[in-house]
Design a protein that fits this description.
The chain is α/β, with parallel strands linked by helices and 260 residues long. It is 54% helix and 10% strand. It folds into 2 domains: 1-48; 58-257, Carbonic anhydrase (Beta-carbonic Anhydrase, Chain A, 3-Layer(aba) Sandwich), CATH 3.40.1050. The model is unreliable at 1-46 (pLDDT under 50). It holds the Pfam family Pro_CA.
């Protein structure tokens, strides 16, 4: 009977010792975790790139050549593909750009939400003008916007940006008719008709044909910009601007420039 009473007593004592030991160790553990967290935070802070907050000035824009601007866009796209976009203080840039804008280029892009134009070229606020319309074609409004960008605001490059898996191009190929979409797609039909002698399947189910039409739509748009905008044509002739085009790869994020 005496042994049975002693055993519970010993068990209680041992439990008390264990609990006391755990309580004593908790501050040490907490301090170690806190020290580790502080160290990691310090390391993370040191890894963060300084935010870019300045915007292009009129003087800097004036010194740029069309070829230099194209090179800057190419380099920006390389950073986008590599996942090393420039860290920017957009809030500060908004305030910096409030008194004026001096963008390097004007880019005509499709409406597609999967083509984030500024990010694709690693550009910040005030860096580029972006005009968007499904199918990236030109019309009077787009041409007027481009003329403003180049002749008035001083941009040095006109870039027509098409992209893979373009729904507007697919719709034009298949002859889709729906409300105002019908007349919109008519602007892309010249690119489809360009390949009237193509022997393969001329539907959106044929990737080869779609790829050809996407590229031709960009090139055709460039041609019509020169034809329908004497201002831009003359500026290009004088070397004040350059008009180019490319196609965005939906898988890699890379922009492939097209030969004209």
């Amino acid at each position: 009977m005496i042994r049975m009473k002693i055993q519970p007593l010993l068990a209680c004592c041992l439990l008390g010792i264990l609990l006391t030991g755990c309580a004593q160790n908790q501050p040490a553990v907490a301090e170690a975790v806190e020290e580790k967290t502080d160290k990691e935070s310090s390391e993370n802070v040191s890894d963060i790139k300084p935010l870019v907050n300045r915007v292009l000035t009129r003087e800097e824009q004036a010194k740029l050549t069309p070829e230099e601007v194209l090179t800057l866009l190419k380099e920006g796209n390389q950073r986008f593909v590599a996942g090393t976009l420039t860290a920017r203080d957009h809030s500060r840039q908004v305030r910096e750009a409030a008194l004026g804008q001096y963008p390097k280029a004007v880019i005509l892009s499709c409406l597609d939400s999967r083509v984030p134009v500024e990010d694709v070229f690693d550009r910040g606020i005030g860096d580029i003008f972006v005009a968007r319309v499904a199918g990236n074609f030109e019309n009077t409004d787009i041409l007027g916007s481009m003329e403003f960008a180049c002749k008035v605001a001083g941009s040095k490059l006109v870039f027509v940006l098409g992209h893979e898996s373009c729904g507007a191009v697919n719709g034009a190929i298949d002859g889709v008719e729906l409300g105002n979409i019908t007349s919109m797609l008519a602007n892309i039909k010249p690119a489809v008709d360009h390949f009237k002698d193509y022997k393969g399947e001329k539907t959106s189910k044929n990737p080869e044909f779609v790829k050809m039409v996407i590229a031709q739509n960009v090139l055709g748009t460039i041609d019509r910009i020169r034809i329908n905008s004497p201002i831009l044509k003359e500026m290009e002739k004088q070397g004040e601007i350059k008009i180019v085009g490319g196609v965005y790869n939906m898988q890699t994020g890379e922009v492939d420039l097209l030969e004209q």
